[in-house]
Amino acid sequence: MDRILVLLRHGESEWNAKNLFTGWKNPDLTPKGIDEARRSGRELKRMDLRFNIGFTSLLLRAQHTLDLVFQELGQKDVPVIRSRSLNERHYGDLSGLNKDEARQQWGEEQVRLWRRSYDVAPPGGESLKDTVARVLPFYCQEILPRAMRGERVLVAAHGNSLRALAMVLDRLTPESVSSLEIATGVPIVYRLNSDSTVATKEVLDR
């Protein structure tokens, strides 16, 4: 039985290009981000992967990425479930700020803690631990059962919501996940064992 789960961070967004904290703000993809999403679809097509269902967040950049991938695959009618549970982590008071300007205001170390630590949240926002707390129940209740039934599942989401999933799939600790980087527009293909652990993992990095 196929138990294929593909994770995909959205292509470059307009605020990625401007080096802004984005979180739950809702910019679309840049032309580069559109190209990244289309290339992801072509990579998945090259592997002869087709999907039974897609999952994405409520944010435009992830939804647009998923749509473009399914266009490249010739699968425009795949059912898609959109959920706030898969949104990027909320950056609170940092949302919309330039990252370099934030470092000037609060200091390099404080901004690094907000961005990379597991349990330190920015003012008014979420830590990665908070993000994990909403992503993992959704994964266990909605995503994993479908993959375990043999459905091929594509999740197009965000750097931190996907880091939350990677903690489970790759068995990462709060310490090791702090160094995990997930590139925009690069599919990560997991094949799962019958006990839901990872049999193989392939990063389709061009």
From TrEMBL:
Where does the record place the catalytic residues?
H10 (tele-phosphohistidine intermediate), E88 (proton donor/acceptor)
Q: What does this protein do?
A: Catalyzes the interconversion of 2-phosphoglycerate and 3-phosphoglycerate.
- Matching SUPFAM superfamilies: Phosphoglycerate mutase-like
Origin species, per record, is: Methylosinus sporium
Q: What is the lineage of its organism?
A: Bacteria, Pseudomonadati, Pseudomonadota, Alphaproteobacteria, Hyphomicrobiales
User: Which reaction is recorded as catalysed by this protein?
Assistant: (2R)-2-phosphoglycerate = (2R)-3-phosphoglycerate
Quaternary structure, from the entry: Homodimer.
Q: One GO BP annotation here?
A: gluconeogenesis
Any idea which positions bind substrate? 9-16, 22-23, 61, 88-91, 99, 115-116, 159-160
| Keywords, comma-separated and alphabetical | Gluconeogenesis, Glycolysis, Isomerase
The record, for Pfam families, names:
His_Phos_1 (PF00300)
Give the positions of the site Transition state stabilizer. Answer: H158
The protein in question is named 2,3-bisphosphoglycerate-dependent phosphoglycerate mutase
